[in-house]
Design a protein that fits this description.
The protein is an alpha/beta fold. It is built from 14 helices and 13 strands. It has a single domain, classed as Luciferase-like domain (TIM Barrel, Alpha-Beta Barrel), CATH 3.20.20. An eight-stranded parallel beta barrel has the order 1-2-3-4-9-10-11-13, surrounded by seven helices. It has a two-stranded antiparallel ribbon with strand order 5-6. The longest helix is centred in the middle third of the chain and has 19 residues, at 151-169. 49% of the residues are buried. Bound molecules: flavin mononucleotide (FMN).
Amino acid sequence: MRPNDEMKLGVMLLQGGGHETAWRDPSVPANGGVDINHFAHQAALAEGAAFHFLFRADTPSVVDEDLGTIARVSGNDGGIEAITLLSALSSRTENIGLVATATTTYHHPYHLARMFASLDHLSRGRAAWNIVTSGYKFEAANFGENELPDHDMRYARAREFVEVVKGLWDTWEDDAFIRDRKSGIFADTAKLHLLNHRGDHFSVRGPLNIARPPQGYPVLVQAGASDAGIAFAAEFGEVIFTAAPSLEHGKRYYSALKEKVRALGREDDQLLIMPGIVPIVGRTEQEAAEKLEKLHSYTHIDVLTGVADRWLGFVTDLHSINLDSLVPEALPQTNLFQSRQKLLLELAARHKFTWRQLIRFIYDSKGHLMVVGTPDKIADTMVEWFDQRAADGFNVLPAILPNGLKEFVELVVPELRQRGKFRSRYSGQTLRENLGLKRPLNPFTQAPVSSLP
Ligand SMILES: Cc1cc2nc3c(=O)[nH]c(=O)nc-3n(C[C@H](O)[C@H](O)[C@H](O)COP(=O)(O)O)c2cc1C
């Protein structure tokens, strides 16, 4: 039995759903990406079921190249930016965690340290940062560059970035702001610590101009799956998102990452691995299959090739390929999401996929576990992954919203509870408390400075 023996659940907030043409369904508000009520509805459903967190992905660019795809998918209207959206939702929710993506490649650490500290205060300790290094082709051109920096270079910058952000969160001790009206002393400057960081990528004096976050640090989330990404996850990550299409793949990733965490001297229950799951829920197998069929009816071939292009890293011209030919074992390496390209090619080789099969698979699941079936079958699969140590919980990626989440909450969550794997109420106030993650101590607490140089 794990010390932390409760399945964790998060849900990805999306406009129409993971299926990027689900917006065509009459049940989806077509302008959902910019409609706060659409997101508040998803938040209420998840919080009502005691989910651990809402997750909002982000990228500062459009994601596709092909105009035929851009014309048809909702994904290039990224919708409301992640930290902005979760800040708004912090006042419409009470208990659920708020995980926002922000890239270390195109931000500055001072800004992000301040924004996530603000979100943690706004939400009274429910903020988390999904640290990404940028993998979408068109981000670079929005920041004065032709190409994304090299993959390893992005991770090198990310390491220093996170060290700086953590350092900034520690610049004020927890009890530095005494706000004593009688003496007139607002801040105890003995509890103020400059950062004075000088490194390869950043020079940051500090201190931060906001009190230490309620959680010490907002929870650090990460999704690296390349060698550099896994090393980063093991060192800094507390919640790890991953795409794992099969139990074997999930178990392999889980045991390798937990081993790395232990080797670094960290407690392995302080890093939670949460693969994505795309549930297509039906009261019968047939109803679930029909739901998927209906989603397929909304897609156009340009969408399938365009979305596949994105996840394979724009390395091949899918429009000129015979879709009934077998997918080759290798493609040119991408500088974008390297590990996802590798995962998809391995899968295609194992199943001897044709291009048509692969692009459909990518559209449906993007490489995540997809389960089409009854609540019983979906719950059994989740419990199997949890019990066999392929997952500490799941990041639920509904194909269509809000109904995909509603059905999951109404039909699958009770099955998980019946199996004793999921709770029915929140156990703590902060996200850390709810996830069983320790609050980081301030390492500067024992070494005060007496004045600012
Ligand atoms: C569930 C999940 C969510 C992700 N969310 C984002 C995101 O919001 N923005 C982003 O740029 N990358 C996102 N990524 C991509 C990862 O940050 C990472 O770049 C990717 O897994 C490839 O890792 P690698 O660069 O180590 O190969 C996500 C990955 C997963 C599995």
